[in-house]
């Protein structure tokens, strides 16, 4: 478990993009569309990310559960 989320291309096995926004281990990812997802971490943050975008498109801080 680390602080990153890596998106892999299932056709080629190559990594497409790495997201390193969390300050603690990333625990889960939930895809919203084919290009956007939310990741959560023990840092009590949720980051909504989009492929091709370098920074989160939205961040939520201070949730009380993992």
From TrEMBL:
<dbReference type="InterPro" id="IPR036322">
    <property type="entry name" value="WD40_repeat_dom_sf"/>
</dbReference>
<keyword id="KW-0539">Nucleus</keyword>
<protein>
    <submittedName>
        <fullName>Uncharacterized protein</fullName>
    </submittedName>
</protein>
<dbReference type="GO" id="GO:0006357">
    <property type="term" value="P:regulation of transcription by RNA polymerase II"/>
</dbReference>
<dbReference type="GO" id="GO:0003714">
    <property type="term" value="F:transcription corepressor activity"/>
</dbReference>
<keyword id="KW-0853">WD repeat</keyword>
<dbReference type="GO" id="GO:0000118">
    <property type="term" value="C:histone deacetylase complex"/>
</dbReference>
<dbReference type="InterPro" id="IPR045183">
    <property type="entry name" value="Ebi-like"/>
</dbReference>
<keyword id="KW-0677">Repeat</keyword>
<dbReference type="InterPro" id="IPR015943">
    <property type="entry name" value="WD40/YVTN_repeat-like_dom_sf"/>
</dbReference>
């Amino acid at each position: 478990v680390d602080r990153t989320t890596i998106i892999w291309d299932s056709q080629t096995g190559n990594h497409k993009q790495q997201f390193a926004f969390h300050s603690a281990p990333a625990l889960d990812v939930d895809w919203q569309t084919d290009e956007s997802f939310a990741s959560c971490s023990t840092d009590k943050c949720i980051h909504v990310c989009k492929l091709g975008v370098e920074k989160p498109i939205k961040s939520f801080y201070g949730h009380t559960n993992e």
